Amino acid sequence: MTGKLTLLWATKTRDDEWWSSFVTSPLAILANYGAVDVPWMTPNRITAASFLVALMASIGIVVGGTACFIAAAVLIHISHILDCMDGQMARYSKVTSPVGSYFDRLTDQVQVTLWFGAAGYAAYAQSASVVPVFLAMTGIAFYGLRGYAKYVALEIETARNPNYPGDMVRLKQVEKVAGLGFGLRANWTWFLHEQRKVFAVDEGVFIFMLSAALVFDQLTPMLWIFAASQLFWGTYKSWLRGKNIGENRKRALPK
């Protein structure tokens, strides 16, 4: 049992997003303890299941009402646990593939659009104000800009230096400092350190933020936070990547 759990824990992404890092990803490891031995459960099927559950959550948000909101909050977490499971299973079973990674990331982007688009509509239905819709659109647009700027920069840098993607992977390698085999103090220090990631306001934060807003029926305040944070991070990340492109032309990457 311990050996299998250790192997599964090793599949956890070392630089997970906030909330994913210490909640949904560990829960995914526990779920995978049984799932990896089920022949018909494949990473791609889990990716598809995650997206279908995310779609059901979006429908629940649109329908509205306390019961549907709470159900949607639960479904959002289930979707994200499944989203963590597919990559872990692929790494554990050594069946990772570029196609699987592509569709996993693609569905991640789409489900964020669905969730917050649905939240904007639900808040509009409650308030009869168009402001929540505008906030949702702003947040979705600038969240998408974060990813778009990243891949445009990657394309430009790779055209200049074909080794650039590999160089970036080596620079971003994260040392394992917690988990199974580490003591209580090391894990507690890691846990406290992870809390800083909340300020990144990325997908891991969305899971917590949106589900909490649904449970407490506070969609409009949540959408203000969503729009403001993505406006800041989308603009800042885009400017920073452009700045780095200029600077990388002047210096060689470390080997």
UniProtKB/TrEMBL annotation:
Q: Would I find Transmembrane among this entry's keywords?
A: yes
Provide this UniProt record's keywords sorted from A to Z.
Answer: Membrane, Transferase, Transmembrane, Transmembrane helix
Membrane-spanning regions, if any?
Answer: 48-78, 123-145, 198-216
tRNA processing as UniProt keyword = no
Q: Which GO terms describe its molecular function?
A: phosphotransferase activity, for other substituted phosphate groups
GO CC, sorted alphabetically, is: membrane
Q: Which InterPro entries match?
A: CDP-OH_P_trans, CDP-OH_PTrfase_TM_dom, CDP_ALCOHOL_P_TRANSF_CS
Task: Give the record's GO biological process terms.
Answer: phospholipid biosynthetic process
Q: List the Gene3D superfamilies.
A: 1.20.120.1760
By what name is this protein known?
A: CDP-alcohol phosphatidyltransferase
